[in-house]
Task: inverse folding
């Protein structure tokens, strides 16, 4: 809708390029999805209570207040690869790489220490809420996964496993669905560095398993020892209810029209 006015523009005028560029720059912050570039604040579709606090932490990291631990900052753990230049005039972290256009203007900051979206952990620490997880991560304890769960749910949640014992193959990865084949000798935690929400579901060998909030904002499941097929997908109950109501209403309208 933001580009609808360009539909009626004269295609032969030299001003069309400038107008198109201006319209694209003034679009809402989901433009990055069109380009296939993931971002942190650009398109957070699911509402999350920790998000405002995390924004403040990431902004301080952007200013270089955590430069002593690259790779273990919150923006690294949460796979925040790109940061916009929303606060001009600051002295950014020395670990960020500026991406500029041919004219030398800054487009975006690249974080080369960002971890991948899909991560595996051999150890977990259990916390009561995301505030405790954030405190632990800000203190530099980034070697473990901090999970909001009751440790009593797991027979041996901290069973050690060497990294080379974990085999994880990604079969599908999209905004709402992931599929993996996993194999490990002692079990491990599978962490996705995107937003946790009650609508996320998981299945291991077609058996439902819980999805836990982890690392403040992301989500994780525990994968037991052995070879397994893993599915993590989003299914909104409110969307399904709305779709059912719409289908019933449409059927009633068709019957009335007949």
Result:
């Amino acid at each position: 809708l933001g580009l609808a006015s360009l539909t009626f523009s004269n295609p032969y005028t030299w001003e069309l390029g400038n107008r198109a560029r201006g319209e694209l720059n003034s679009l809402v912050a989901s433009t990055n999805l069109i380009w296939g570039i993931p971002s942190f604040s650009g398109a957070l579709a699911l509402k999350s209570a920790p998000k405002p606090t995390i924004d403040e932490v990431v902004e301080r990291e952007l200013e270089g207040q955590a430069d002593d631990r690259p790779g273990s900052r919150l923006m690294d753990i949460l796979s925040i690869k790109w940061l916009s230049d929303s606060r001009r005039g600051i002295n950014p972290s020395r670990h960020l790489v500026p991406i500029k256009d041919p004219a030398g203007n800054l487009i975006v900051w690249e974080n080369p220490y960002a971890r991948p979206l899909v991560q595996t952990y051999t150890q977990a620490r259990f916390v009561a809420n995301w505030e405790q997880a954030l405190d632990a991560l800000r203190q530099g304890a980034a070697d473990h996964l901090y999970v909001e769960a009751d440790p009593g749910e797991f027979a041996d949640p901290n069973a050690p496993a060497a990294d080379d014992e974990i085999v994880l193959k990604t079969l599908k990865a999209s905004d709402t669905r992931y599929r993996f084949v996993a194999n490990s000798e002692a079990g491990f935690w599978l962490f996705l560095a995107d937003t946790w929400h009650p609508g996320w579901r998981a299945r291991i060998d077609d058996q439902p398993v819980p999805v836990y909030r982890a690392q403040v904002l992301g989500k994780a499941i525990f994968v037991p020892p052995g070879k397994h097929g893993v599915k993590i997908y989003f299914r909104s109950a409110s969307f399904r209810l709305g779709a059912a109501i719409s289908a019933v209403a449409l059927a009633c309208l068709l019957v009335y029209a007949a």
Observations:
- Confidence is low (pLDDT under 50) at residues 39-44.
- The radius of gyration is 22 Å.
- Residues 13 and 27 are 22 Å apart (CA to CA).
- DSSP finds six helices and 14 strands in the chain.
